Amino acid sequence: GQLTEEEKISLLAGDGFDGMSTMAIPRLGIPKLVMADGPQGVRAHGPACSFPSGIALAATWDPQLAYRYGEALGREARARGIHIQLGPGVNIARTPLNGRNFEYYGEDPFLTGELAAQYIRGLQSQGVAATVKHFVGNDTEWRRMEIESVMDEQTLREVYLKPFQKAVKTGGVWSVMSAYNRLNGYPSTSNQALQEGVLKQDWRFPGPVMSDWWATTSVDSIAKGLDLEMPMAYRVTKESVIEALRDGRLTRERINDAVRRLLRMAISMGFLDRKQTLKDLPLDSPTNSAVSLEVATKSIVLLKNDPSLLPLDRKKIRSIAVYGPNAQDTPVVGGGSGGVTPFRKVSFLEGIKNAAPPDTSVFYAP
């Protein structure tokens, strides 16, 4: 109630200076809310624990472990002063060619939703808001800013929306990120039926819907259910909002609702009552690393062992041949917003050499 109209408008878009936070209103004690990528760990805040990817977590089939994964990621975020973690990603693996499948939980909407909900609960238990993404049908990276996903209502509800529904209803997620793609004729950031209808009315989602970076199509997106343009005021500027108010495309009630959603999340998560950085938490945490290793171990699935080749017998093995470039230059996790820079890493080749008996010959060919 004490915000000026100009201050309210400023809260409809991110702070373009750093590209990863909301605007602050210091006179009312509203802090800048710092965000960080991504689902597998804290990116771009220095080295951090690189957790196994979403598809690996899904392969554990373990909701309790998903909760602990979220808890550990929450500790990572609090150690670095991050309010909002941009994960989990719950898009469906409908094609193996999607370059971001590693971030997600596979092709099953039930498993995806169950594990994502526990991840969210674990993360938010540490005082860090989760962001479920990308809402919705963002299941390929090819021409992602212009592609359109077309599907009937049953498919949309039973497959693609189901994980988001569980994230909201079971996980209590505080933030939702809209997608780049169009869905059934409408840009995701301007899809009123999804953002206002399904998400806010049907599911009673109380928090803010933010755009993916540079995905907002126009100031009309705010009128159609988007609450926060990221990373900055590009479409949703002071001038464009005032013009939209003047010609009736946007109402003050909708602006108030968008601002309330952001503040409701901030107040509910305690962001106005404390400093977000917990200085007694280590940046390089052995506890979090142990959780990461447990997830990695439990994610490994042996499909067939006939004849019983595995495990290799340390007493009998004399030579091992290792082929392929990734053995030496092993990727830690996928890149982009799902990437994490770890404190340390061990390649497959190093790991095999370290694990093999001293007199074993290891031959490598890239």
Task: Report what the structure shows.
The protein is 34% helix and 10% strand. The chain is an alpha/beta fold and 366 residues long. The chain has a 5-stranded parallel beta sheet with strand order 1-2-3-5-8, covered by helices on one side. Helix 4 (109-124) runs parallel beside helix 6 (162-169). The relative contact order is 0.16.
Offer a quick outline of the entry:
This protein has about 375 residues and is an alpha/beta fold.
Quickly list its features.
366 residues; alpha/beta; five-stranded parallel β-sheet; three-stranded mixed β-sheet; 12 helices; 10% strand; globular
Number of helices: 12
What is the makeup of the main sheet? 5 strands, parallel
Strand content: 5-15%
The end-to-end span amounts to 64 Å
Note the run of SSEs as H and E.
HEHHEHEEHHEEEHEHHHHEHE
- Widest sheet: strand order? 1-2-3-5-8
The backbone outline, from C-alpha atoms, is: globular
Mean pLDDT across all residues, rounded?
96
The unreliable regions are none
Structural class: alpha/beta
Number of strands: 10
Proportion of helical residues: 25-40%
What is this structure's SSE topology?
Elements: H1 5-10, E1 35-37, H2 54-60, H3 63-79, E2 84-86, H4 109-124, E3 129-135, E4 148-149, H5 153-160, H6 162-169, E5 175-178, E6 182-183, E7 186-187, H7 192-202, E8 209-210, H8 220-223, H9 238-246, H10 252-268, H11 286-299, E9 319-323, H12 348-355, E10 361-365
Parallel strand pairs: 1-2, 2-3, 3-5, 4-6, 5-8, 9-10
Antiparallel strand pairs: 6-7
Helix pairs in contact: 2-11, 3-4, 3-11, 4-6
